[in-house]
Amino acid sequence: MNQPRKPVASFAEIRALLAELPGPDLESGTRAATREATLTKPAGALGRLEELAGWLATWQGRHPPQLDRPRTCVFAGNHGVAARGVSAYPAEVTAQMVQNFLRGGAAVNQLCKTVDADLRVYEMALDRPTADFTRAPAMSEEECARAMAYGMMAVEPGIDVLALGEMGIANTTAAAAICLALFGGEAAEWTGPGTGVAGAALARKAAVVAEGVAVHKSACADPLETLRRLGGYELAAIAGAVMAARLARTPVVLDGFACTAAAAVLQALDPRALDHCIVAHVSAEPGHRRLLARLGKTALFDFGMRLGEASGATLAIGLLRAALACHTGMATFAEAGVSGKEK
Amino acid sequence: MNQPRKPVASFAEIRALLAELPGPDLESGTRAATREATLTKPAGALGRLEELAGWLATWQGRHPPQLDRPRTCVFAGNHGVAARGVSAYPAEVTAQMVQNFLRGGAAVNQLCKTVDADLRVYEMALDRPTADFTRAPAMSEEECARAMAYGMMAVEPGIDVLALGEMGIANTTAAAAICLALFGGEAAEWTGPGTGVAGAALARKAAVVAEGVAVHKSACADPLETLRRLGGYELAAIAGAVMAARLARTPVVLDGFACTAAAAVLQALDPRALDHCIVAHVSAEPGHRRLLARLGKTALFDFGMRLGEASGATLAIGLLRAALACHTGMATFAEAGVSGKEK
Question: Which residues of A touch B315 (CB under 8 A)?
């Protein structure tokens, strides 16, 4: 295991870690593909399930891969820009939902039980929101780097897969701003209803996104600057967790729009930085489909979900288990005495 | 429970049962929707998971719905048309794969373990294939009706959801012929690679489909005649199981192309006959997408699977469990003390 050695507090340290990201274990990937070809089914007939088994092997760096200890992490943070009225819910809902997570009442609790995943909830200074990004950078460099380091701590030895998600009133506004800064286009193309704004409120939300990006545009050539100026604690933590997972050879399942936008910062820094990540689902938040196209990622499913809190990523753990069960448990043609393809 | 009273052996008896199919339990569906609106998430934020919980309530006829006893049924049959060289695998593979199911080595065995489903395998006279449909009707009326009755026996009291699938070398040929007879178009539009035919062999397969439908066309105004002339034992059994499930208020998950084609016969007989069915996935077999469009069904996921044997339908049971866990286990806004939407 190649864990980060000490908490980082500067972007220089983040960049040093990024330079160390390991590549795929092609030998384990090849062993998975070799076994797959012997199993009692026409070649490729399990489609994406076969691909998932190979992906687990490749990025865990072992064959067979394992899925005994999946972990779901939900990072929660508050956003100064919530004061601009960009959300359908008041900012205190972030802390209320964290209590709901801790008491077991949220969707992600039920989903973790269903797929037998370990749920960790990380509350990030909810009483001290980031700055309103239309007036100042959301975070200082140290705050952003420390939030990333906090996210890194979610990755511990022995975790087989990491499902990531977030909770934070106004964070689809921050995610839209990050995407606009990273990929360009119009604010309205990246801005969606989030928890449920529509009409004039949605137009105001897009205007806030445009305003924020305009304020910080000159500094945003550096994706880490984009993250600190427009992001939030929970989004920085997700970026940190994605990096630390790569260093620890832990494959990652990304959730919806806010989570994927946070991860996109890393891909902007290094085009290979998300190769160990799959995206669970296409969110109903319209910017997500657009973002996935930019990242070159095909989500596993499209259920019209838009809840965040790692709900889609956790649901995907069940699909990974199914993929792995087929890969490791199926008989080969030789074992089963089944005739192969003719000619 | 409203179980069929005795095994049927004629189409007149099948039609009598079809006339008895119960409608949706709208009261249970409404109770599900009412609870859904109180749970700690923005309205609709769990997307299709919310819809699935409501569907289970509506077609089980109770609220809350249950998912303690899911059953996966795989019906296996052999097809005379296999002698025309339409499959990449020899016909003996049907029986070999049944042995593989019974010994626990197939994909569906691993998937049933993953989602904790009871697997039942129904071997249907594998040493006595149906007639080659390019020369004669595949089955007599009595054979077809008895195969349907055999499928009905898969539905027992206490089963919470039924996942259906099949195994039968050459049955994508039969399925393509059924679809061509039911929906028209060109044989090549309904004919796909199945277990892996391509090029000239695929063109020959399409020609066999066209030839079979041409032979029986005049009789195919009756969908049950289409089933007996072009189908097979396992496809008739699936149609029977779908009907019996409706009578017993057991929601059904359909699998890929062959399974959905068998069910389509019922929808051709009664446009409401598949209202209690969802389709798990879009198969890589190209006719499936086309068939789903004709049936007005949106599959849950698209993993490029094309294995049959109820593999996709069984995988979907895990998603149903997740939907139900959220519906029954989540806290309400009032219970959790979470603020509602503003304004």
Answer: 49, 319, 322
Domain ranges of chain A: 66-322
CATH number attached to the domain at A66-322: 3.40.50.10210
Show the DSSP H helices in B117-185 as ranges. Answer: 141-152, 171-183
Among B46, B87, B195, pick the best mutation site for testing chain A contact (most A Cβ within 10 A). B46
For the segment B92-129, what is each residue's pLDDT rounded down to a tens digit? 999 999 999 999 999 999 999 999 999 999 999 999 99
CA distance A284 to A312: 11
Q: Specify whether A234 is catalytic.
A: no
The one catalytic residue among A36, A51, A234, A309: A309
Q: What is the pLDDT of residue A343?
A: 59
Task: For residue B307, give the 3-state DSSP assignment.
Answer: coil
pLDDT digits (tens, 9 = 90+) for B233-261: 999 999 999 999 999 999 999 999 999 99
Q: What are the φ/ψ torsions at residue B300 (nearest 5 degrees)?
A: -70, -45
**Of residues A47, A89, A328, nearest to B305 (C-beta):** A47
Backbone angles phi, psi at A25, to 5 degrees: -90, 90
At which residue do the structure tokens 């067979």 appear?
A: A64
Q: How far is CA B325 from the centre of its chain?
A: 24
3-state secondary structure of B136: coil
For B106, nearest residue in chain A (alpha carbons): A330
Nearest C-alpha neighbor of B41 from the set A124, A194, A78: A194
Gap from B119 CA to chain A (nearest CA, Å): 15
What is the DSSP-derived secondary structure letter of residue B332? B
Enter the ipTM: 0.96
Q: What is chain A's alpha carbon radius of gyration, rounded to the nearest angstrom?
A: 20
- Of B308, B321, B250, the residue nearest B101 (C-alpha): B308
